[in-house]
Design goal:
The chain is of the alpha/beta class and 266 residues long. It has one domain (5-231): HAD superfamily/HAD-like (Rossmann fold), CATH 3.40.50. Helix content is 39%, strand content 17%. The strands form 2 sheets. Strands 5-4-3-1-6-7-8 form a 7-stranded mixed beta sheet. A two-stranded antiparallel ribbon has the order 2-9. Strand 6, helix 8 (187-191) and strand 7 form a beta-alpha-beta unit. Helix 4 packs parallel to helix 6. The longest helix is centred in the first third of the chain and has 16 residues, at 74-89. The model is unreliable at 38-52 and 230-266 (pLDDT under 50).
Length: 266
Amino acid sequence: MSESAAFFDLDKTIIATSSTLAMGKSFYAAGLIGRRDVIKGAYARLIYHLGAVDHDRMERMRRDVARTVAGWDSDRVKAVIEEDLITLIDPLVYDEAAALIEGHHAEGRDVVIVSSSGEEIVGPIGELLGADHVVASRSVIDAGRYTGRVEFYAYGPYKAEAMRALAADHGWDLEASYAYTDSFTDLPMLEAVGHPHAVNPDRALRREAVARDWPVLDFRHPVRLRARISRVPAPRTPVAVGLAGAAVMAAAAGWRVARVHGRRAG
């Protein structure tokens, strides 16, 4: 049983893009979104890569995406993601992040991915990376279709709340645990552990990290993860991938604890 854990944000921390926005072309090809949505998604991706996504922009993007996915067929979404996601994400994993993940595993820590993207996106990525657990946004599906409403939003303080719940369930010492993220909006996530790290930080987080004397890491080398798969540990427990979440940075829910996938057997 692990005594501590390493918590990783996903986008721009483990992978060199937004996992949700990366699916835009695939959703367009599947007829789920139109050309206007693709253009808006390209703009959002540019803003994201420039590090200009603050809380207000995230909220606007969240509302836009929630409106877009309302009515989508959940089985169709699952099929598109299964077909394209790993191919899209595989060459975008930072080598530095993969090395950290295997390092924490070697030292006996559980690895947890904590992301505001939908669970059906985060789950397969977590499995590819050998994560032990994932925390992700979870949307409401009714009669096989997304409603545009959200059951849980893994964002800001909700991430930290989910981390504390996991730690209580698994007996982890958060003071001995690690966290990695690029965004100032994840400050509660970093404050929840004894070893916070800013990775490719936006300006606000960089200032905060310098002021608090937190380590600042710059990841610059995306690699094809499957090309180095022999060095990536397989999940010690399979990550369970559910369909309860939309492939979105979805609407905010109440202050509640995430349902976490990838529980240990036994």
